[in-house]
Design a protein that fits this description.
It contains eleven helices and 19 strands. With about 450 residues, it is an alpha/beta fold. It has two domains: about 45 residues, no CATH class; about 325 residues, TIM Barrel (Alpha-Beta Barrel). Keywords: Hydrolase, Metal-binding, Zinc.
Length: about 450
């Protein structure tokens, strides 16, 4: 059985529900945290001393598109989970699209599970999908082990994953409430009137084609649906993915104040990039909903600070370079999605530290709260005895420039190439296994599927 210790003058530990940074020695036995001791405690095993580097709980990223099976030329479990490990992410949750088949039936989910053997460098949970055609299959899909489900209120870009309407949501919510899992919503409604916007190579033309009102109206609809669910006695958990519009924050705050089970996330690209700084013709910045103005970005940071936004996830949504139309700058035809899975922590830390956030705060926003959201909080998201021995070792001081050569996900493209950041993940441990060290992967993949009811 594995038995070792990690120690540092700066360890983010959780004790009786409260997290703090302190000097500590973490003892690992097998795949679990055995105990947290004072720094310098003599143990009957090897102790790795990381001095003043920060030992944090491994990150939990609950929004990742891995695209396997079926579109592995876009990404895949091996490369995506390597990028995750390089970013200090020790558990992620895979989205039900853009794989083929989409994860909307038990059979499709089993096909996905069969595709992960010997490919997972970190642990991996899975979201299912709700489409108009699969409401009757939801019980079976949820019993198979998905951690929750996702729908689109607008065209997903994938024909086999059509959007839902209010009647579909009403039919799904009692089933999801019975299983007590979150219902993730891509919240944009095509309100019309903007389809005549000509999308050119100007980023602002794309921004004008997907206005804030699309998000605002979609989120207002979901607040109404959540109220209805509560009145019916179900009180289904509703979660807004990748929030971009600051104008929707008031609706989210109202939902929370009413006691609805309503949450929302945002992503590094909405917090670290402003539309004013996006060069025209740079399709790598295209995502849906779009990256908005700097004033909008500042309002999102305020909402992260005060809790209207619950946590931060990557929404890693890669594709082939060809589908990004990098050479011709065709924003309209380019696939929408940001590739940056391994860079989330340094990107956010670079901005957050200037705003008074600590690494204890980031452990909450990118680990413990995401673990709780995905139903993994009994094993993931904190350094506490009995939890999985998932750690990252972080140097919060080192500054460097992100380059394409650093990239571990399948295609070495990202809108962050050339960006200066502070903070570097130097080591990653998954359930006590040292999987990543100073830009190198160690041994073989040790990750495993995380299935609801079988954690």
């Amino acid at each position: 059985m594995t038995h070792f210790g990690l120690q540092s003058k700066n360890v983010v530990i959780t004790d009786k529900g409260t997290s703090k940074m302190m000097a500590a020695c973490v003892e690992v036995k097998g795949e679990l945290i055995h105990a947290v001791h004072p720094y310098g405690t003599a143990l009957e095993c090897e102790v790795f001393d990381y001095a003043d580097k920060v030992i944090m709980p491994g990150l939990v990223d609950s929004h990742v598109h891995i695209n396997e099976p079926g579109r592995t030329e876009w990404e895949g479990f091996n490369t995506a989970t390597q990028a995750a490990a390089a970013g200090g992410i020790t558990a992620l949750v895979d989205m039900p699209l853009n794989c083929i088949p989409v994860t909307t039936t038990k059979a499709a989910f089993e096909e996905k599970l069969n595709s992960v053997d010997d490919k997972l460098w970190v642990d991996c949970g899975f979201w299912g999908g709700v489409i108009p055609q699969n409401i009757d299959d939801l019980d079976e899909l949820l019993n198979a082990g998905v951690l929750g489900v996702k729908s689109f209120l607008i065209d997903s870009g994938i024909p086999e994953f059509p959007n839902v309407e209010a009647k579909d949501i009403r039919a799904a919510m009692p089933i999801l409430a019975k299983h007590d899992v979150p219902y993730l919503i891509h919240a944009e409604l095509d309100c019309g009137g903007f389809n005549d916007v000509v999308v050119s190579d100007k980023y602002n033309s794309f921004l004008a084609s997907r206005p804030k009102s699309w998000e605002n109206d979609a989120i207002s609809l979901m607040v109404d649906m959540a109220r209805e669910s509560k009145e019916l006695g179900d009180n289904c958990k509703i979660h807004i993915v990748h929030l971009s519009s600051d104008e929707a924050l008031a609706s989210i705050a109202t939902a929370k104040s009413e006691g609805l089970r309503f949450s929302a996330e945002t992503c590094p690209h909405y917090l670290t990039i402003a539309s004013e700084n996006i060069p025209d013709g740079k399709t790598l910045f295209k995502c849906c909903p779009p990256i908005r103005e700097n004033s909008n970005r500042e309002h999102l940071w305020q909402a992260v600070t005060d809790g209207r936004l619950d946590f931060i996830v990557s929404d890693h949504s890669p594709c082939t370079p060809e589908l990004k139309h990098i050479d011709n700058g065709d924003i309209e035809k380019a696939w929408g999605g940001i590739s940056a899975l391994q860079f989330g922590l340094p990107l956010i830390w670079t901005e957050a530290k200037e705003r008074g956030f600590t690494l204890v705060d980031l452990a909450r926003l990118m680990s413990s709260k995401t673990a709780k959201f995905a139903g993994l909080d009994s094993i993931k998201g904190q350094i506490t005895a009995g939890y999985h021995a998932d750690f990252l070792v972080f140097d919060p001081e080192v500054s460097y420039t992100i380059t394409n050569e650093m990239i571990k996900h399948r295609h070495n493209i990202t809108p962050y190439a050339g960006r200066q950041v502070t903070g570097q993940v130097q080591h990653t441990y998954v359930r006590g296994h040292h999987v990543y060290q100073q830009d190198e992967f160690i041994n073989a993949p040790v990750g495993r599927p995380l299935l609801k009811g079988k954690l």
